[in-house]
Structures are given as structure tokens and as C-alpha cells.
């Protein structure tokens, strides 16, 4: 398996403990800078929201249960502390400069300098039956 970062997110949070537990609960701005080889992927970008897929590179990867609740495993949560710390945060887009590879965002919950793995258009409707579990 090969997964390369496409860029970096810059936020006001120097450590993971400073970052909000969920991006939508905070009022924090940040900037995603997409690396030059991947900037073409922003062509036509005009959304007001984006899902940032990022790697919590400073998270504890040895945890399998939640610190606050040993009766629950990390796979029942959105905690970044997990064997593969892939995280997804939906953010509001404040401004976009696709040519420069920059997205200014609101609602970030990442530590400064976290690697960005992907950017996705958010899902606006679900794609499963209402009866599914």
C-alpha cells in the first residue's frame, strides 16, 4: 500500500492537545497548501465546503481502547489515536486559490503541519437505504 501526502495543513494549533476535538465545534481557521504536482486537482474547485483527509502523524498509534472509556475500542470513535491515524474533517472554504494551491478554511481540528492525504467534495445526501444498519 502506498499513500503519499498531497500537501500540508497549517493551523494555529502547535500540538494535538491544543486542537479542538471536532472541527465543526471550533471557530478556527487554517490553510491547506497543495503541493505543486497535485495542484491541477483543484481545477474547477468552487465549493463552499471540503472534506480534508489528513494523517494525524503525532497521534498515539498504539492505542486500541479509548482513554476515557476502556469499554470502547478506537474503531467505535473518530479519535485520531488509532493504528492508522487517517482523519477526515469537513471544513468551510473561506477562499480558494487553485493556481497557488491554497484553500483557506474554517473549522479545522488538525495540529499545525499535519500532512494532507486527499481533498474531497462533501457528501450532501446519503447513498444507502434508510432501512440499512
Automatic annotation (TrEMBL):
SUPFAM superfamilies: YaeB-like. Keywords: S-adenosyl-L-methionine. Residues 3-131 form the TsaA-like domain. InterPro entries: TrmO-like_N (IPR023370), UPF0066_cons_site (IPR023368), YaeB-like (IPR040372), YaeB-like_sf (IPR036413), YaeB_N_sf (IPR036414). PROSITE patterns: TSAA_1 (PS01318), TSAA_2 (PS51668). It comes from the Archaea. Belongs to the tRNA methyltransferase O family. This is TsaA-like domain-containing protein.
Amino acid at each position: 500500500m502506498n499513500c503519499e501526502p498531497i500537501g500540508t495543513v497549517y493551523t494555529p494549533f502547535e500540538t494535538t492537545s491544543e486542537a479542538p476535538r471536532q472541527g465543526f465545534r471550533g471557530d478556527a481557521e487554517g490553510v491547506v497548501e497543495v503541493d505543486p504536482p497535485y495542484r491541477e486537482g483543484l481545477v474547477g474547485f468552487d465549493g463552499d465546503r471540503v472534506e480534508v483527509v489528513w494523517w494525524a502523524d503525532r497521534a498515539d498509534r498504539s492505542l486500541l481502547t479509548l482513554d476515557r472509556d476502556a469499554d470502547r475500542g478506537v474503531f467505535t470513535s473518530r479519535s485520531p489515536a488509532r493504528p492508522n491515524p487517517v482523519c477526515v474533517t469537513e471544513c468551510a472554504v473561506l477562499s480558494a486559490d487553485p493556481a497557488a494551491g491554497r484553500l483557506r478554511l474554517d473549522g479545522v481540528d488538525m495540529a499545525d503541519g499535519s500532512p494532507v492525504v486527499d481533498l474531497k467534495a462533501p457528501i450532501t445526501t446519503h447513498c444507502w437505504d434508510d432501512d440499512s444498519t
